[in-house]
Amino acid sequence: MVDILGKPLIPGLNAALSDFARGDVIEYVQNSAGTPRYETSSFNFFAQDDWKIRSNLTLNLGVRYELDKPLVDSEDRVNTFRLGQQSTVFPTAPRGMVFPGDAGITRSTYQTDKNNFGPRVGFAWDVLKNGRMSLRAGYGLYYDTVISETTLQFLTAPPFAIQPFSDCTTIDNPFSNALCTTPIPQPFPFTPVKPGGTFDFTTVAPIGMTINEPDFKTPYSHQYNLNVQWEFIKNYLLEVGYVGTTGVNLLTRRQINPAIPGPGATTGNTDSRRIFNRNNPQNAAFGGSVFSGITNQETSANSNYNSLQVTVSKRFSDGLYFQNAYTWSHCIDNSSGLRSNTRWNDPRADRGNCDQDIRHRNVASYIYELPFYKDQAGPLGKLLGGWQLSGVTVLQTGTPFNITEPNDRSLSGAGSDRPDFVGGTVQFFDPRNTDAANGGPNRSFNGTGGGTSTAATNPFFRRIGSGNSFAAGAGRFGNFGRNVFHGPGDIIFDVTLMKRTRIGENKTLEFRTEMFNIFNHANFGNPNGSIGSANFGRITTTRDPRLIQFGLKFHF
Known about the structure:
With 556 residues, this protein is mostly beta strands. It has helices at residues 15-22, 378-384, and strands at residues 24-29, 38-39, 42-54, 57-68, 72-73, 80-81, 97-98, 117-126, 133-143, 165-170, 207-212, 220-233, 236-255, 291-317, 320-333, 352-353, 360-369, 387-396, 400-401, 420-421, 461-462, 485-486, 490-503, 507-516, 547-555. The longest helix has 8 residues, at 15-22.
């Protein structure tokens, strides 16, 4: 037995402990501390008018204009990629890597989106002309602002900062002792280079980048609704409505420098197969490969949400309030946020249930003031009066989870790997089960074969190939979709018992007992969806158990 660097194990220790004792590591990453300061400005204008067409019908019209300037660093410490362009700001940078001040490169590296007009229209109709039933509808186009997370990658952007890494190395001298990556001299301490200065970019090759799309647009959504409200009994209200949203130009990330698989391809030669390194005349000067992955932050994602919402409520009267709200909805997108990753060659392959998709959700809330001794007269009134019971009950179906391939079986270095689906109907089980027939105990679905090279014994899924090389059958994406299945739902009863005791004319002592998940129901997390894990299909987490807290407050 040997450790990760091929050294004999220390007697009495397993491989992991032997590595730890020697300071041998698979990967070592260190970065310099970037200190950016980002600035932006926003200008917003709107006009709105209400037009009372009839005594019982009102039309709302409006329009809004938003100009959100891009985020810019106070010292322009950012970079981006333009194929074939040579930087004049940093002439030693590889061709394609450019900076603010180079031809066509703005301070933010993308253009300002100036056409953000958002119309609004809606109406309210008192159907029965007595204030007991109303029909309302509305539509609006709403713009988002670009989040600051799009700038985080520049914290380690060379030559303003660096984040070198070494694979298969030792902790005492990680950069020069690397066995699986090109050894480099000790790069720290690091002094940031200002525009026009000199920096040896070959010392941080292959260069990985995360950039902003040159055609970066402002994300926006169409939001629309139609609902009817009916007071069917005094203080009791029924609301039934449709609510929908269509998201356009939403944030996502996509690899634009993928590796192309073919004969001889393995995960060990990914960078040499990347499209911007193929036949690149600068490869030799940069240690064999100029660039690593180039992640594009772009606004190419979209979403669609539709829902039926039904609410029954009672206004607070006679010491009682309650509301029960039910939502039946479905959300579809091809990326659920900036930290998602869409398939480099076919973003449609990631179209599926949103990460936040909850098909059914029912929330009941209530407040009940106990009716006796409300005046709190006498000792018995002080003891038994002023009690209030309230709570929130949530019943909902689960959120989606992904079936993923943890290794780069597509040999693309681009992420978004999933296995093949070979057919059949996937059954789901109570995770409390101890049956080992489905790959082990606590399985939500059959996880047989998880963690093996092919998962050949699994009745539903297969890994792509038997290893991380073209010769072993890798080199393509699996056919299974994104977020196909939903995990377990939640049943949560939260209850609060409160006692208010009046002391004199203007003082009150309030005691609260708050009980969360009062019945201690086990609300399970999603199962492990990684087919490369021995825990494939297994649920190993739960949400909070019963929690009880007390509070005492004195009002004066």
